[in-house]
DNA sequence: CTTCTTTGACTACAAATGTAATCATAATTT
DNA sequence: AAATTATGATTACATTTGTAGTCAAAGAAG
């Protein structure tokens, strides 16, 4: 078994919950609820529901401490992010992914270190990068493909 | 009014439909259905439903041609991709977005041109890139933040 | 003209999701 | 001990999504 099974499907709202638990490393419901009530217009029961679903999905683990639970992430944040992003991109036309990345890189705040790492990785890819990546939106090669 | 309103929320299954219409520029239901039946285990009625939902959402436009419809994309593919990707990333911890992009860049097939463009844009960002991007998972500055 | 087929319209239905109320029990406070 | 509060468990409910069946009208085929 991998230590970090990134199998669970985490919805948008659930993702908000995971973010605070990931950041805190572990937390009881009181903490999670009070933090999230500040960020959203969510009622406590809503957050409880989300926590419950995450536990059922295996994204959060519980340790009973007296009458309460301490929740801990069962999946790695970075791994979950990587997987979600890759899944999202793979669902889009391969031919346009590069441009999408360019737009995203333009709009996001990235640290100097991240920018440098990205450049390094890209430069390493350059030599073997194909001249073009074809559209993969149609079955096999149904003549028609995305325009260039 | 912007020509390309990327407001509609397109689900995963619907995205598959959009991809073929985007690629073909326009298509009648027969064409869409036969192409998608090859790529998925979808029955014709399923695809009809998806097309109908996309029309209702405003993602596809219709032109009546005799008894049939010709469907055309009402939103731009690249713009939709950019927006979806940005939305996905913005829902994640700002501190880890850079790393996620690195992983994605490593795993994706990118054309030489895309790689070059990415490098160019990144190099342009380098001078003004901040030393670090802080975690934004907790309200304001609730002392705790993601580890470095 | 009658029958088969194509195509769009309408209906169906379970699972996931967003959002929350209620309830019971354990803990705290008076 | 009684009243209050906190916490997890259970239930609720509309919407979205995935997946598909049914039906009627319009054409095509015989």
Could you characterize the architecture of this molecule?
The structure is a homodimer of 148-residue chains. By secondary structure, chain A is mostly helical. Among the domains of chain A are: 12-73, Winged helix-like DNA-binding domain superfamily/Winged helix DNA-binding domain (Arc Repressor Mutant, subunit A), CATH 1.10.10.10; 92-128, no CATH class. Chain A has helices at residues 12-24, 29-39, 44-57, 77-90, 94-107, 112-125; strands at 27-28, 60-65, 68-73. In chain A, strands 1-3-2 form a three-stranded antiparallel beta sheet. In chain A, a hairpin with a 2-residue loop joins strand 2 (60-65) and strand 3. Chain A is elongated and about 60 Å long. Mean pLDDT of chain A is 91; it is low at 1-5. Chains A and B meet through helix 1, helix 2, helix 4, helix 5 and helix 6 of A and helix 1, helix 2, helix 4, helix 5 and helix 6 of B.
């Amino acid at each position: 078994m991998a230590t970090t099974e990134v199998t669970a499907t985490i919805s948008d709202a659930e993702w908000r919950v995971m973010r605070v638990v990931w950041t805190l490393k572990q937390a009881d419901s009181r903490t999670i609820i009070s933090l999230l009530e500040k960020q959203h217009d969510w009622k406590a029961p809503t957050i409880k529901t989300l926590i419950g679903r995450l536990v059922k999905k295996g994204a959060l683990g519980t340790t009973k401490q007296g009458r309460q639970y301490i929740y801990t992430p069962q999946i790695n944040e970075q791994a979950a992010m990587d997987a979600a992003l890759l899944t999202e991109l793979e669902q889009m036309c391969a031919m346009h992914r590069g441009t999408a990345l360019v737009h995203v890189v333009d709009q996001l705040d990235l640290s100097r270190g991240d920018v440098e790492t990205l450049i390094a990785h890209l430069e390493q890819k350059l030599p073997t990068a194909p001249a073009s990546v074809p559209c993969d939106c149609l079955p096999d090669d149904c003549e028609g493909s995305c325009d260039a």
